[in-house]
Design a protein that fits this description.
Elements (H helix, E strand, L loop, with lengths): L13 H12 L6 E5 L5 H9 L5 E4 L26 E4 L3 E4 L5 H5 E3 L1 H6 L5 E3 L1 H4 L4 E4 L7 H13 L1 E6 L2 E6 L3 E6 L8 H4 L4 E5 L5 H16 L1 H7 L1 H17 L7 H13 L6 H16 L7 H11 L16 H11 L97 E3 L5 E3 L20 E18 L10 H8 L22 E8 L2 E7 L2 H5 L3 H17 L3 E8 L2 E9 L2 H9 L2 E2 L5 H18 L5 E7 L9 H6 L5 E6 L9 H9 L3 E3 L6 H11 L1
Parallel strand pairs: 1-10, 1-11, 4-7, 7-10, 16-17, 16-20, 20-21, 21-22
Antiparallel strand pairs: 2-3, 5-6, 8-9, 12-13, 13-19, 14-15, 17-18
Helix pairs in contact: 1-12, 8-9, 11-12, 11-14, 12-13, 13-14, 17-18
């Protein structure tokens, strides 16, 4: 029997505990997105919570976990008659792997049986297995967007729809959705972030005493899991009972108009898009009141809910970090809560911090063996790789969503990217001021990014779904049919009928209907778009800084980074200056990391162009071994000068066959055309930095060149 690390024994992570508990109390809150660095016990605490959920009664033999007291009318295994046998089992914990397919998530129809036998055979997916339990998605930011859309739709509606070839199946899918992600590996789109009810930012504690307690408890658990769990039995039982009581109290909690107006005022003041934030905050405040034993929502409940529901809804572009201005929140609550009176003696622990997941009798917030103020493993059970504590519950550097607090950043590079033009005509509009670095270089400022033309890899690929180059994908327009290599996933009905039609007479057909054989089946061949690996090779030498062009260069690359984010690409950054080339950013899906490295990029020194090209060739060689299906696009940003670093012709030969684009940064009345010569070596089109923002002409020139 696998023993789960106790929820009550997790050190710190107060906000994460609270967010999970609120969703356990009321699934209407809409799930939790946990953002944090690796090794912060994200997986551990999610698995621990599932063990504390109340058990569920299910109809015996039902694959969709129907409640015998209220079975679903449209259950594919139904209808269920009153009085059918039932059983009680623990709430399920279902984990969605990153590589899961749409069929595995939503379920699939056996198309072969449907066509040949005329039966509607449905194989349930993970959404059905998670019904009335927990669906845990680790690394949710690495899932394909259409899968994230599908599971968020199911979580919002409580129903999963599966439709294939005119056959439709629907079943209940109500679950507690928890997603975890490491922002270093890439962000979720703001539209998908908004679909998660609450978000929590977690970081490892910097308190030596707390870190030591984490290790102490983890070592004790690894040495004897059963004995360690037994020490926390009383706290775990009290937590489970409290969750059950709070669930029962939710329908009785009243949301006064004054508090509803307070919620609307807060959401409007923070300028969140749409009304989902208001709904989530209201549901979370109701759940918090029930958790605290209150029958009426108070300002404290609104405060706790807003801190968890608003930070991730304030992003305006991919380079914005989620955050919340705590001082503004407190000011809004003070101005809208002046007429509030205490709602009764049920409000426990008035001195507790609003985000605390419990009060004096809260088993998961305090108490238990060891240090009563700390709780948490240094790595998750089951060896998922998450390790480390959360911060102290009162620590400002703890797992609080307002870690990146503050209104939108003042850097013009972080504003909304809506402007069509850019610093493409002559020198950039922003002054090319710079600061010295310890290494002796200068750091140029970055202006506001602008829209750039679509740069594509020629030919037809088969990489991961994206929005850049043509590719054969599982989603897109149908371009043909083919015999299936295995089980039919996407039936091409007309092609199947055409394949079977010539053999009807010899198969003995005498009446209506088509006689099919397995060899007649055809599946759809689709063409869509793929994401590529866009590797930027940026000249950061003194020749760039001398002409004060580095601001324009950085702005252009930042604009291309934004374009890569929107088209679901992986990105990498190689820079060269002085005597060597450096891999400033290994290939990643995190555009934020690329933007940060670009802003801090120093300039100065000689121009080792050959070293930069050779370093790019080595990076692409390694990436081809890791992900052979993802095609690369090399973007070289340089004026073409080479004053050190070896033979440029030999280095360019290493990149033979790689789709490339050269962005010519040369300026001034007299131009040497060195970037054009480099483009000829690479067999790549040339784009002038001054014309990069001219969408129409650049796209036409690029298509002609390709």
């Amino acid at each position: 029997m696998i023993v789960t690390y106790p929820f009550s024994a997790v050190v710190g992570l107060a906000d994460l505990k609270l967010a999970l508990v609120l969703n356990a109390v009321s699934p209407r809150v809409g799930g939790v997105l946990v953002r944090g660095e690796k090794g912060t016990a994200k997986s551990t605490i999610v698995r621990a919570l599932a063990a504390q959920l109340p058990p569920v009664d299910v109809v015996a033999g039902c694959r969709f976990a129907c409640d015998p007291a209220a079975p679903g009318d449209e259950c594919p295994d139904g209808p269920h008659e009153p009085g059918e046998q039932w059983l009680r089992r623990p709430a399920s914990l279902v984990e969605l792997p990153v590589g899961a397919s749409e069929d595995r998530l939503a379920g699939s129809l056996d198309v072969e049986r449907a066509l040949t036998e005329g039966v509607k055979a449905f194989e349930p997916g993970l959404l059905a297995a998670a019904h009335r339990g927990v669906l845990y998605v680790d690394e949710v930011n690495l899932l394909h967007d259409h899968l994230v859309d599908l599971l968020l739709d199911a979580a919002a509606l409580g129903i999963c729809y599966v439709e294939r070839e005119s056959v439709s199946v629907r079943h209940a899918a109500r679950f507690l959705l928890v997603g975890t992600m490491n922002p270093e590996e890439g962000e979720l789109r703001p539209q998908l972030l908004d679909r998660f009810g609450l978000t929590v930012e977690v970081k490892a504690s910097r308190d030596p005493g707390e870190r030591a307690e984490v290790v102490r408890r983890r070592l004790a658990f690894d040495a004897d899991p059963g004995a360690f769990a037994a020490r926390w039995t009383a706290e775990e039982s009290a937590l489970a009972d409290r969750i059950a009581r709070a669930r029962a109290r939710v329908p009785e909690v009243r949301l006064p108009d004054a508090r509803l107006t307070q919620i609307a005022t807060v959401c409007a003041a923070f300028e969140v898009d749409g009304l989902r934030a208001d709904l989530v905050t209201a549901n979370a405040a109701i759940a918090h009141a029930a958790w605290q034993g209150r029958d009426v929502v108070t300002t404290e409940d609104v405060r706790a809910a807003a801190r968890l529901s608003l930070p991730h809804r304030r992003r305006r572009d991919p380079f914005d970090a989620p955050g919340l201005d705590e001082s503004l929140l407190e000011d809004l609550l003070a101005r809208t809560g002046e007429d509030e009176r205490p709602d009764g003696p049920d409000d426990p622990g008035g001195a507790d911090r609003p985000g605390d997941p419990g009060d004096s009798d809260d088993p998961d917030g305090a108490g238990g063996p060891g240090d009563p103020a700390a709780s948490g493993p240094d790595r998750p059970d089951g060896g998922s790789g998450d390790a480390g504590p959360g911060d102290r519950e009162g620590s400002p550097a703890g797992s609080r969503p307002q870690e990146a607090a503050g209104s939108r950043r003042d850097d013009p590079a972080d504003s909304t990217m809506e402007r069509q033009g850019g610093p493409g005509q002559g020198e950039p509009e922003a002054p090319a001021t710079s600061a010295a670095t310890p290494g002796g270089g200068q750091v140029a400022v970055v202006a506001e990014p602008y829209r750039v033309p679509l740069l594509k890899v020629p030919g037809l690929g088969e990489g991961a779904a994206g929005r850049r180059s043509r590719a054969r994908t599982s989603r897109g327009r149908a371009t043909g049919s083919r015999p299936p290599a295995g089980r039919v996933r996407d039936l091409h009905l007309p092609a199947t009928m055409l394949a079977a039609a010539p053999y009807q007479k010899e198969r003995g057909r005498t009446g209506p209907g088509l006689l099919l054989r397995e060899g007649d089946l055809r599946e759809v061949v689709r063409e869509g778009r793929e994401g590529n690996l866009v590797l930027f090779v940026v000249d950061a030498s003194g020749s760039m800084a001398a002409r004060k062009r580095m601001t324009a260069v950085k702005t252009a690359v930042l604009s291309l980074l934004l374009d890569a984010y929107q088209r679901r690409d992986k990105i990498g950054l190689v820079t060269f200056r002085g005597a060597t080339a450096e891999l400033a950013l290994p290939p990643t899906s995190s555009v934020e990391a690329g933007a940060a490295r670009l802003r801090a990029l120093p300039t100065g020194g000689r121009t080792p162009l050959a070293a930069g090209l050779a370093r790019a060739a080595e990076v692409l060689r390694v990436e081809r071994l890791r992900d052979p299906a993802r095609r690369p696009l090399l973007v070289v940003v340089t004026d073409g000068r080479a004053t050190s670093g070896g033979d440029v012709d030999r280095a360019a030969a290493l990149l033979g066959g790689t789709a490339s684009v050269v962005v010519d940064c040369e300026s001034g009345p007299v131009r040497l055309g060195l970037a054009v010569k480099l483009a000829l070596r690479l067999r790549a089109p040339v784009i002038s930095l001054d014309s990069l923002s001219d969408l129409g002409s650049v796209v036409r020139d690029y298509r002609k060149a390709v």
